[in-house]
Amino acid sequence: MPACCGPSRSSATKPVPPSLQVAIRDPSEVVRGMVAVASGPFLMGSDGPDAVPGEGEGPVREVTLSAYRIDATAVSNDQFAGFVGQTGYVTEAERFGWSFVFERFLGRRARAAMIPAGLPDAPWWRGVRGADWRHPEGPGSEVTGRGDHPVVHVSWADATAYARWAGKRLPTEAEWEKAARGGLVGRSLPWGDELAPGGDLRCNTWRGRFPTHHELGSGFTGTVAVDAHRPNGLGLYNVCGNVWEWCADRFSVDWHVPERADTRYDPAGPEHGTERVMRGGSYLCHASYCNRYRVSARTANTPDAGSGHLGFRCAADEPAADEP
Q1: Which of 169, 171, 304, 318 could form a disulfide with 176 if both were Cys (CB 3.0 to 4.6 A apart)?
Q2: Three-state SS at 201
């Protein structure tokens, strides 16, 4: 996968902490802040000219899903702090001792903590000792004042642990895309095909010349609040840009070929694979370099990956009719 979208640690995964003890939750508590998505079919994928070759966006196919719920927003720093406060959970970035930070954001202390080896294909990513969800730009940074921003530097295992604690789960890739489309059919973005219709900025992506110039100038700080910009037709915020979002599925470019009927009804992805799906793009995406902020675009990374533009939102099964 391209390093610009999801830099990988390229190393053995640290041991995952013991399974969390999860309290039984009232269903009404679980679905608070979630959006209901009705059962039924939708058209998944893209065969359009913007589809990235070799990443399995197509073919366009009809996929039928059972009813489910999905978070209206990505999980915020405040929400993740609540999880850590109750469980004592330690993220993989903390246990590795470092994570990837966009070089533009590095302060003096963070630059002193850089890991010498970089990424030849994406030199703007730097491994920084001490970078984690509490210190998004490494030493000298903190999340104070950013409680409503999406939590970042979370691995797939971290996201899964939070979801389980919350009585939820990660969305499947199909669930994520159906919800992100917001009820529109065959469009590139949740509101249509134009990134900024009438000059109206509707998502947090790179503006300018990547990676050297941003139109917002030196004060550009990456993420924005999880409920920034207007929601899509189903009430979801920031499904394009801001941060990449983990999905439950293992990644494959050919698992959903038309001959496979099991990919058309509540698909959960292939049984085997070393990478997990990421969706939605981030504040670093730009059409000139990485237009993966489109609703059909997809990429992947190793499940131990962590970076300053990678977060998640949760999903849940629709409560049974006799539940509140």
Answers
A1: 171
A2: coil
Write the pLDDT tens digit of every residue in 165-186. 999 999 999 999 999 999 999 9
**β-strands 244-250, 310-311 pairing:** parallel
Q: Read off the pLDDT band of 321 (50, 70, 90).
A: low
Question: In the chain, how many domains are there?
Answer: 1
From CA 290, how far away is CA 221, in angstroms rounded? 19
Residue 226 lies in a domain: yes
- Please check whether residue 247 is in contact with residue 172, taking contact to mean a CB–CB distance below 8 angstroms: yes
Predicted TM-score of the model (pTM): 0.92
Of the listed ranges 47-51, 118-122, 148-152, the least confidently predicted one is 118-122
pLDDT in tens, 10-19: 654 565 565 5
For residue 15, being part of any structural domain is answered with no
- Which of 101-105, 159-163, 316-320 shows the highest mean pLDDT? 159-163
State the DSSP H helix or E strand holding residue 245, giving kind and residue range, or none if neither.
Answer: strand 244-250
Q: Which helix (H) or strand (E) holds 62?
A: strand 61-65
Number of H helices, E strands in the chain: 6, 13
Nearest residue to 163 via CA among 236, 263, 280, 69: 69
Is residue 96 within 8 A of residue 133, CB to CB? The reply is no
- Cβ neighbours of residue 294 closer than 8 Å, sequence gap 6 or more: 46, 50, 188, 189, 240, 281
Asked whether 285 and 241 are in contact (CB, 8 A), the reply is yes
SS3 category, 156:
helix
Residue 214: band (very low, low, confident or very high) from pLDDT cuts 50, 70, 90: low
- Supply the range of the domain harboring residue 59: 33-74+161-317
Q: What is the CATH number of the domain that holds 186?
A: 3.90.1580.10
Assess if residue 148 is contained within a domain: no
Residue 6 lies in a domain: no
